[in-house]
Specification:
single chain, 377 residues, alpha/beta, seven-stranded parallel sheet, six-stranded parallel sheet
Length: 377
């Protein structure tokens, strides 16, 4: 098949770009012809909360990437739609994660489908975002109605799609779990990883990884850590990721909980080459989210075979069943504290790691490509 993936990719950075590039490689390995069409303008600078949208990595040499879509220019949307209509791919995959892009994706898809050949199947990370706005009510239905079908990364997202579509969506929306991010290199031994990061390998480490935003519940984790700091004297917390919240309020909470010497703060975007160091040093990956659909961090943890503590929100518990590969607890400081104590006082790491090794085979990228190819319209 001839496939165009429309969404964020190099030169933009982040987990969504990594996802799209890895998905394209899977399609290529199966013999399909694939192009990645990305943005000339993704977000206006004043709307972007981080330090930069752009990657510092080298451009991938094995992928065809075209910068085509301006997220703010309707005349550009018409041009891109017509270009895809004329190119006549068998499959157009719009990689959707927030309503800001719904008008552009919706118009491009409608125009592209006029050739009578191209089928538009959306890849939906989040249908309703963690931080909703009026745009979701105004724009999301326009996008949903432009698609022939949907592949979502969790059942909770399928339900959100069906709520917006209201009719005939159930047959055309499928859940296919987030595949494992397997392109970050080999697992690094803890001693080697700690040396690379300047950490004491004799300590125990939990890792909070990724962008720091309110819905991710770092405040819950800090309160939970404060509750168990005496019982777990060797435990430390690594916070590795750029803050999209005011760092000062978290520093104040760290101090209030008496954790100043127990928390390692790395307020920066972690490049791909360094992920294996942070996950190698960690004994437990913690995702104390207050709301979620799914998370790419869990799939990085699967790749590096690291047990996880997640909260029972959205689709996280679908991926990490409680007391199998880790914990899926209620999003409260008390519940998180209880599971931290269980994990580190009862030496659960070995048993949970063995379970992870068996479970990770379910999350092959071939399952994701098969989901797209099996959507009927």
């Amino acid at each position: 098949m001839k496939i165009i993936l429309l969404g964020t990719t190099y030169p933009y950075r982040g987990g969504l770009a990594a996802f799209n590039e890895r998905l394209a490689r899977q399609f290529l390995s199966e013999g399909h012809e694939v192009e990645l069409w990305t943005f000339t303008l993704q977000y206006p600078s004043f709307l972007f909360p981080g330090k930069t949208q752009y990657s510092s990595e080298q451009a991938p040499k094995d992928l065809t990437i075209r910068r085509e879509l301006n997220s703010c220019n309707p005349f550009n949307w018409i041009r891109v739609g017509n270009a895809i209509r004329k190119a006549a791919p068998d499959l157009l995959i719009c990689c959707y994660w927030m309503a800001f892009f719904a008008p552009a994706y919706g118009l491009v898809s409608r125009i592209a489908r006029r050739n009578g050949k191209t089928k538009a199947i959306a890849l939906v990370h989040n249908m309703m975002p963690h931080e909703p706005s009026i745009l979701d009510k105004l724009f999301a239905p326009y996008f949903v109605k432009s698609q022939n079908g949907f592949v979502a990364l969790s059942e909770s997202v399928v339900k959100d799609i069906e709520k917006i579509a209201k009719a005939n969506a159930k047959a055309n929306a499928k859940a296919s779990p987030h595949p494992i991010y397997d392109h970050y290199g080999e697992r690094m031994a803890k001693a080697e990883a700690c040396k690379a990061l300047g950490l004491d390998p004799k300590k125990e480490y939990m890792l909070f990884f990724g962008l720091v935003r309110a819905y991710k519940g770092l405040d819950l984790l800090l309160d939970a850590f404060g509750k168990v700091k005496v019982q777990l004297p060797d435990l430390q917390l690594i916070i590795a990721g750029e803050f999209y919240e005011h760092e000062d309020k978290y520093r104040a909470q760290i101090e209030a909980n008496g954790l100043t010497e127990r928390v390692i703060l790395r307020n920066e975007f972690i490049p791909d080459a360094d992920l294996r160091k942070y996950f190698g040093a960690a004994d437990l990956i913690v995702q104390p989210y207050k709301s979620a659909t799914q998370s790419g961090v869990t799939q990085v943890a699967f790749h590096f075979e690291k047990p996880m503590l997640v909260t029972n929100v959205g689709g996280l518990a679908e991926i990490v069943p409680d007391h199998q590969m880790g914990y899926a607890c209620e999003p409260t400081a008390d519940a998180i504290a209880e599971d931290l104590l269980d994990y580190f006082t009862n030496n659960r790491q070995a048993a949970y790691t063995e379970c992870l090794k068996k479970e990770k085979t379910k999350y092959a990228w071939s399952n994701m490509t098969r989901a797209f190819l099996n959507i009927k319209s």
